[in-house]
Write a structure and sequence with these properties.
By secondary structure, this protein is α+β, with helices and mostly antiparallel strands. It contains nine helices and eleven strands. It has one domain: Hypothetical Protein Pfu-838710-001 (Beta Barrel). The radius of gyration is 18 Å and the shape is globular.
């Protein structure tokens, strides 16, 4: 564990906890999403400011959750290119495991012409292809995307850690992802993101957001980041990636060169 990780944990224990049951009561029906990219050092500053105004999600005494996600795409990378070429509506197919609770879901994310993202999912036993198919995966994705599991292959897997904050007014959630690692099934390449932190603000319409002023105060600016697309571009040099080059250069300037870190074994996220 790095010094930055230790500092993050020290500030997390000072935030009031909120349970998963309490979280389920927060219905953001008219939701807007905004992403930000920063460093672990800046995150520590943000957590210090959030003290007294935000809860931290706690599950079984854990305030940092481990995730593992596998993205599926066509051999011609249809879903990656839809995003790269700013096509709308666009979609992504993924299987996500909440490592600590051992829950896995097959999910389809759709971003429409108005910038709104909708997610639909079903429970599956594991990330294994046959398990996903046997759980009804084929009609589920075919109804939403037109593709079947004969048309798609696993392309990129990521694993990361997540902190979830909720403001005291319970009108917004803030997900904070870090220690993101990628593995590409097509190229067998691995990559990591070093001290990079990805923040996503999910709030109820345009209601007042305490965190926005805090983000401005520590100079954390809005910055789009797709884990699937950036992870694909980092680990597969044959993909068209000109639309993401400026974004990756910007991230490198922010946290140094984060794209050459050896992957961290999943077991290190389970403690």
């Amino acid at each position: 564990m790095t010094k930055a990780d230790e500092n993050i944990r020290q500030w997390l224990v000072q935030l009031a906890p909120i349970s998963l049951n309490e979280m389920s009561g927060i219905k953001l029906m008219n939701r807007t999403d905004t992403k930000f990219v920063t460093s672990k050092r800046k995150l520590v500053e943000l957590l210090e400011l959030a003290h007294g105004q935000y809860y931290v999600q706690q599950i079984d005494d854990k305030r940092i959750a481990a995730y593992r996600t596998t993205y599926w795409d066509t051999p011609t990378h249809r879903f990656y290119l839809e995003h790269h070429n700013t096509h709308a509506p666009r979609q992504k197919i993924r299987v996500r495991t909440y490592v600590d609770s051992d829950l896995t879901f097959l999910e389809v994310k759709t971003k429409n012409n108005h910038g709104r993202t909708k997610k639909k999912r079903i429970t599956v036993p594991s990330q294994e292809r046959q398990d996903v198919i046997d759980a009804g995966g084929t009609p589920f994705i075919q109804g939403l995307t037109g593709a079947t599991f004969d048309d798609i292959i696993p392309t990129v897997q990521n694993q990361f850690q997540r902190i979830t904050l909720v403001n005291y007014g319970k009108t917004e959630r803030l997900t904070i992802d870090f220690n993101v690692q990628f593995h590409n099934f097509e190229t067998d390449c691995d990559a990591g993101t070093g001290d990079l932190v990805i923040i996503e603000l999910k709030r109820d319409g345009n209601v007042f957001s305490p965190i926005l002023e805090m983000l401005r105060q520590v100079r954390i600016k809005p910055h789009g980041f797709s884990k699937y697309c950036i992870g694909s571009a980092m680990t597969n040099g044959s993909l068209k990636n000109n639309a993401f080059k400026f974004k990756m250069v910007t991230i490198s300037k922010l946290v140094g060169n984060p794209f050459c870190v050896p992957p961290r074994p999943l077991s290190s996220y389970e403690s």
